[in-house]
Fold each of these.
Amino acid sequence: MGLAEDLKDLAREEGFDAAGIAPADPVPGIDAYDAWLAAGNAAGMDYLRRGRDARAEPARVLPGVRSVLSLVLNYRPRAEPGAGAPLQGIVARYARAGRDYHGVIREKLRRVAERTRRLLGLAATRGAVDTAPLLERAHAARAGVGVFGKNTALITPGLGSYTFLAELLVAKDLPPDSPRRNPCGSCTLCLEACPTGALTRPFELDSRRCISYWTIEHQGPVPDELAARFGDRVFGCDACLEVCPYNARPRPASEPALGPRADLASLDLVELARMDGPAFRRRFGATALARPGREGLARNAVVALSNSPDGRAREAIEEAAQDPSPVVREQATRALRRRE
């Protein structure tokens, strides 16, 4: 079978759902990435600009790298939540697990790296879980573990796009896998489903209009025009994934640590808006929802409350207008103006 197949097999043995190998050459899609940055589509995510050169050349991340082992881990929950209850905020599926996925994947990557070094007789490897400056989807597409969908998510055969990506950089030439053909055809369901029009055209996402960006990455208030389209979402957005035909019947995740926690599928908006720092850390500190911080989630709760027709929402927004955070106060003030 050869070393390459052995390497992919051991990755699957450690719990990854798919594995493929790509050459660690300079990424051919960097021109498109540069154009995307130049158009302002990265919004306030300055780290995407700072890491541009490393994203273009994996050797800047691991000197001497020759191959990229691209890995896919499925997070699709076994059961879907029911319809949202009044004054409940919805969380993107990937963040409903009891543990932050970074820690789960790093543990798997560490074991894969140790076994890789024994298998190949190498000391030079480096694992990455969306925190290193790598164009993960580009490497995954070159490695044949998936293809870009028109919503810019990677679609993996048999898994769909409810997946996490990871990489192991390896200082050895390994036979690469072949890329797959794009499966979208004439389908535009994802573009039509985006609540804010963030998918400006096939294969291009404008983060300045993306609910995931505003609810997770952005640190200030949300503009009224966008806030009105968030609905009851308080962390991320699965709208473009939910309508994708390749996500209609994928197999559920097998990793127990990524199983959904019952109290994270939806969040009480009033409780979330009132939550103080210690309570936030106790409940969300070990989960992906910790990223926007207490201030960010409270702001998101106010946005969702402002979109609710429930009469109890106004009282909660008025209370949030007295919040210690100036960002939460500003969002609440805007919400009250919208409801007048």
Amino acid sequence: MAQKQVTTGYKPRAPQKEIHELVKANRFVVVVAHRRMGKTVAAINQLIHSALNCDKPNPRFAYIAPTYNQSKRIAWDYLLEYTRPLGGKANIAELRVDFMGRRISLYGADNPDSLRGIYLDGCVLDEIGNINPTLFTEIVRPALSDRLGYCVAMGTPKGQNHFKDLRDRGKQHDGWELLEFKASDTKLVNADELKSAYKEMGEDKYQQEFECSFSAPVEGSYYSSIINDLEEKGRMVDIDVDGLARTYTGWDLGMSDSTSIWVAQLVNKEVRLVDFVENHGVGLDYYVNWLKENDWMHATHILPHDVVVRELGTGKSRKEMLEDAGLAITVADKLTIMDGIQAARRLLPRCWFDPKVKDGLDALKNYRRVYDEKRSVFHDRPLHDWASHASDAFRYLAVGLDESPMEAWSKPLEVNNTWIV
């Protein structure tokens, strides 16, 4: 009996065909695409095509956007449309479609726990520049391992952040392959529309959105332009720890959220960021052990004002718990968020960054204001996402850093009529 051929109605454009061909031959692909190129449509249809051709039992594929709401808003209708001819059964509550024994699910990177423990035959990370880079290394990559699944990381540039690093990695063929699509090359957007967009958006924004430039700062970012200048000045270098320097840590303590810690050393007027840690779902003992293992217990530890609040279960505050563990705690002054951001902006031009703090630095670059899509304006308050924890910890560090002269080091000491300098 002749097999019945079913079409989903998808007719890929030339750039979309290039994506499909590259994914067919490679496990890890980076796609840098201009606005309105159709990358999300290509992503959903790539997952459908892969699912149909997967010969493993119970194939599982995933589309992951920066947030769950974005995933639903951007990709859900496409997933329904293109799986309908395949007899797809939609589960709206779990944002997934099952068809022919296959499953494609939509996720948000803002809820990484929803991805833990699953296996994947393939996935797409959309707008990767707005996704915590640890999501791939800690969750997605292990989920792909036992089935040798593939991953496509795609997006439009968001400044010189981890997406640029991944793009450079793809360009160097370090296990990844790269595709870049500029509007001037694809000719998919009307020329008159591009001219109009250029006039309204300005050079930097136009180059970012339509010509895939990573040179523009992250739009709405509080710190990315400062950090870009520091990178150009060579402030990202290997830093030797100074055993005589004053050492501080800045913390952002999360309860159900992540906790972040920066380690800084003051050497003359320089502020050297030498270490960083962030984790999720672990207790205070984890961070105390990390400090011990890395020899940072002797530092002055700067924590937010809510560290003094007593917990109902223990009757102790987290400040008391950390002090019992041997840490010298300083509570940062309670300033408004905007005043704290200004303190961080004043501190940054004096900073040097060791490669160990790269994850924290990526967060600082991506820390930005809330954007109102309906009104096309930025609100004067920070967006709470994966970049918030490290950025808040840096803010507390900036507010609590004690740079007053050290009397014991600045004055000679008299012992038995002898001056010791």
